[in-house]
Fold this protein.
Amino acid sequence: MAVHGGINLFAAAIGESLELSGSTLISHDHPALRASGARVEANLELRSGAVIAGCVSLSRAEIKGTLRLSDSAFTDTSAIDLQGATVGTLDMASLHTLPRSLDLGAASIGRIDDSPGSWPGRIELDRLAYQDLRPVLPADQRLAWLDRSEGYNPQPYERLAAHYRELGHDDDARSVQLARHRKRRGVSRPPARVWGFFEDLTVGYGYRPGRALLSLLTLTSLISVIFAAVPPQPASSRGPDFQPTAYALDLILPVLDLGQEKAFIPTGSTSWVAWASSMAGWLLATTVIAGLTRRLSRTGH
């Protein structure tokens, strides 16, 4: 079938499937397919070489079966609007040519079959709910999917991280959460942005715990070298022998008492190094605790 001017099925009730496979739908001033609020008891098929020039409006529609868009072709002025729709399965694993945009905002979809090659340049994902994504792609590819949504919305990141946790892909889930914090940092105020950068650098917002150990080892080594070159003065003649590494750990870790910090007093410019080390230690400890608390709060359930 070839239609010039569009099809209007607004709020239609279709007892079985709507099959438009291989059809050509062309409309420049109105939607090529207007089925907002429609109810389809089975499938809606726009595939097998279907050509769509114009918007496909399915907002608030209910499609109990599969919305099949694979093997169809869209023009660069086309858009697919599924805002608030309820769909059993969205099949868009392969498109010959891509629409300009895809709006999945507030949609509820049981399963999404797609591929990186089928993603339009702009995808609205805020408040999208889904049960399954196929194929299972690594986090870096799915993050590219999220990046096609304008602005920063935490919900798509939270849902994707939960999806990976449901599959047992904890590393991918942590990568998504880390990306969420980095995205939020980009829209934060300057003080929060600076603190966020420090959290990322030192502990990866709690999702890269190995960074905390690396930060601690780096800072400890640096302070040890400085005070080995310029040792502090003993506070008492009966004190312990000076140990640069133990002294550095005493300065850096606020909950640790190895007896070195009390037994030795830095002099000259090294007193500023000692003060800066203590401050850096407090910041590192606070960041580690905040990051680990955040991680535990996400995974404890």
User: Anything to note?
Assistant: The chain has a mean pLDDT of 88. The radius of gyration is 29 Å. The CA atoms of residues 108 and 129 lie 5 Å apart. The helical segments are 139-146, 154-167, 170-186, 190-203, 210-229, 244-252, 260-263, 270-299.
